[in-house]
Amino acid sequence: MTSHRPPCDAVGYHPGWVYHGLVVGAAMDAARLLRRLLSGDLVGPNSLSRMLEPRPLPQFRSELHPDPAYGLGLMLRATNPLGHPIGHSGSGPGSRIAVYAQQGTTCVVWAATASGVDPEAEVFRSLRNGGI
Prior knowledge:
Blueprint lengths: L26 H12 L6 H7 L3 E2 L11 E3 L4 E3 L8 E7 L2 E8 L2 E8 L6 H10 L4
Antiparallel strand pairs: 1-2, 2-3, 4-5, 5-6
């Protein structure tokens, strides 16, 4: 899906601020993309290994990310990355999204900012509980 309209009614939003290098689609498509990426269907084993190579970012520690790291395009943990959620989060005017996978289960949550829902917290909770 390609769109030049924001996914919300954000006043003053100009889609050019973030659309460079951005994939636009449905939330379920994001989950499918991550699942296929982590299963090795989209890139070769060497590339996937590099994507999963953590670069620690201790300055960004939080309750959800006690040991944060970044691979090539993937948020993960610095120690034992495969034992914890791997994916990515993002936000823009009016909405937030989190797409993560853990031990073969993939979960995505998109929410309007005004809803008060924290997509990352919801995805991590769901993955801890074995998915929805």
